[in-house]
Write a structure and sequence with these properties.
Belongs to the histone deacetylase family. This protein is α/β, with parallel strands linked by helices and about 350 residues long. About 40% of the residues lie in helices and about 10% in strands. The N terminus is likely disordered.
Length: about 350
């Protein structure tokens, strides 16, 4: 059951009240700021425990440092996020699910780092879940900025395996579902939202959440041979492109371009959420695809050119990517988008 299409009137009223009372939309973007969201609190570091998962849990900080070094923006021009509160999370998540995160064993299962189960939960909350809540707040804030500026980037987020009632795959909070619900509530002119998910993995979390909501169109291009292989969630994908292990640039890039333009012409979105995972990169131990660094940069250019060419706002989330080289590639992509006139200063 989708959380939007089938929710009761009482649930809808409660959700509207929670959004109205949230502080995540109360900020005004400075005229000197780029719509790029980041905070050092995104990075997960605790006694080396983070190294027990292939995910580079300080990728986000290195992306930001590269953008500073490349003079894309300065510290002062970066937008600082606000951590999503429990009330913000309850806009989508059930109370039983949030309560389950108070058990370290549950968080260990979601993050796929077994030793986390042995840590006191107050440590898990501070060192593991707070960074994810901060990134979730950043995604919601980036949604607002994308509508106002035409584009935005959260250097983090993209937790596409998490739905209202369950997490998984290092995704504890449903930031994509939350981002979209906030946009639909605050901007009445937006009635059609498209998710373009080009992470190597199937985006099963939001697909479950929006299963019955015709306002949301999902285009998902993923490796069918890897996690999560969620057959039920596939029913929530409007345009499904299943790839095989070892897919290369030559096959991948034309497919992206063809299906993206077809999806835009079919649905006519008024807002796009772009989940730009870099785990499609050759050598990624979890994505198992063979896309070159130049292919990743070109993929992002294709998406922004297609969406911005229609004057549609787009928000980009960095999502998966399990090699240290991905931080440099994400930064290179942002530079490419700037140099191609697809993003720019205030």
């Amino acid at each position: 059951m989708g959380i939007f299409g089938k929710e009761s009137r009482n649930d809808a009223r409660s959700s509207d009240t929670l959004i109205k009372n949230s502080s995540l939309y109360t900020f005004n973007l400075k005229t000197t700021s780029w719509p790029i969201v980041y905070d050092a609190g995104y990075n997960i570091t605790f006694m080396g425990v983070e190294k027990l998962h292939p995910f580079d849990s300080s990728k986000w900080g290195r992306v930001h440092n590269f953008l500073l070094d490349d003079k894309v923006l300065t510290e002062e021009e970066t937008v600082t996020p606000v951590e999503a509160t429990e009330e913000d999370l309850l806009v989508v998540h059930t109370q039983p699910y949030l309560n389950s995160l108070k058990w370290s064993a549950t968080v260990a299962q979601i993050t796929e780092v077994v030793p986390v189960a042995l840590l006191p939960n107050f440590v898990v909350q501070r060192k593991v879940l707070r960074p994810l809540r901060l990134q979730t707040g950043g995604s919601i804030m980036a949604g607002k900025m994308a509508v106002e500026r035409g584009w935005a980037l959260n250097i983090g987020g993209g937790f596409h395996h998490c739905s209202a009632e369950r997490g998984g795959g290092f995704c504890a909070y449903a930031d994509i579902t939350l981002l979209i619900k906030f946009v639909l509530h605050h901007f009445e002119q937006i009635k059609r939202v498209m998710i373009v998910d080009l992470d190597a993995h199937q985006g099963n979390g939001y697909a479950r959440d929006f299963m019955d909501d015709d306002r949301v169109y999902v285009m998902d291009v993923f490796n069918r041979n890897i996690y999560p292989q969620d057959g039920f969630a596939k029913a929530g994908i409007k345009r499904k492109v299943e790839l095989r292990c070892g897919t290369t640039d030559q096959e991948y890039l034309p497919l992206i371009k063809e299906h993206l333009y077809d999806a835009i012409n079919e649905f006519h979105p008024q807002f796009v959420v772009y989940n730009a995972g870099t785990d499609i990169l050759a050598g990624d131990c979890l994505g198992l695809m063979e896309i070159s660094p130049k292919g990743v940069v070109e993929r992002d250019r294709i998406v922004f050119a297609a969406v911005r060419g229609q004057n549609v706002p787009i928000v980009m989330l960095t999502s998966g990517g399990y090699q240290r080289s991905t931080a440099r590639i994400i930064a290179d992509s942002v530079v490419s988008l700037r140099d191609n006139g697809l993003i720019g200063p205030p």
